[in-house]
Amino acid sequence: MTTSSYQMLSDGVLVKLHIAVILFGISGLFGKLIPIDPSLIVFGRTLIGSIVLLLVMAVTGKLKSLSMTRQTLVDMALGSILAFHWITFFHSIQVSSVAIGLLAFSSSPVFVTLLEPFFYREKLRKLDLVTAMSVVAGISIIFPFSSIASESGIVQGIIWGVISALLLALLSLANRSRVQKSDPMELTCLQNIGAMVTALLIMPTSEWFLLADFSVEIMALGLICTTLPLLLFLTSLRHIKAQLVSLVLCLEPVYGIILAAVVLSEIPSLRTLLGGAVILIAITVGTLSSRSTTAH
Question: pTM for the full model?
Fold first, then answer.
């Protein structure tokens, strides 16, 4: 492959990665567009996602490799963490705003950094602690503790968003070892199925009929904001360095906030933007430093 051809391939894959991150960012808007219990949203999202992924695996011949083994059950069990991650994420947005939910959720890489040494016996660096404290500082700017009585919606949004970030971090750490033993698409499919079953078991049965009322929105969430970006993301991992992928993922809150402003007219306050900037800069610097150290 010539240099120009390789550059064109890299540019095309990078565009796909940005599209995937934009679509991931759009998913936050559905917390407002679908005003129902988050467990119902997650059930609909994972039902559509699971069906499409199974169809893709059937077409590509990967479905034949699926079998009910202990590892399969473990992967599906991890889907429960995925379910609660999405439930708390949507709840965060419903009680506050898309901006608050996305920025609080963006703290997930910090939890990964802090917990990784305990999972994999890796050394915790001083810069990692500085990054974590910087994220806390950014959250403090968004929500001054002096406002805890007057702005309960914001504090609830931050708390649920941070819980969502922690759950995603735990899932990411668990998947670090699982992905070495499983095909990424197979792993994603099984975890989607596990998340679907979990959401089905906990969602309020008296509100099932609401799924029909928002069937179009849930279909869009499952197809356009779950399955499509996932496939684009998995494709990009084969051609782009992990460092660049991590940096582009940091843009998810940025894309989501911009789209929320355009679609929902949710204009974040200057305080939210300032705190968000501190959080994103801290995570970006921490990501760059972490990848640089790994490369050496």
Answer: 0.86
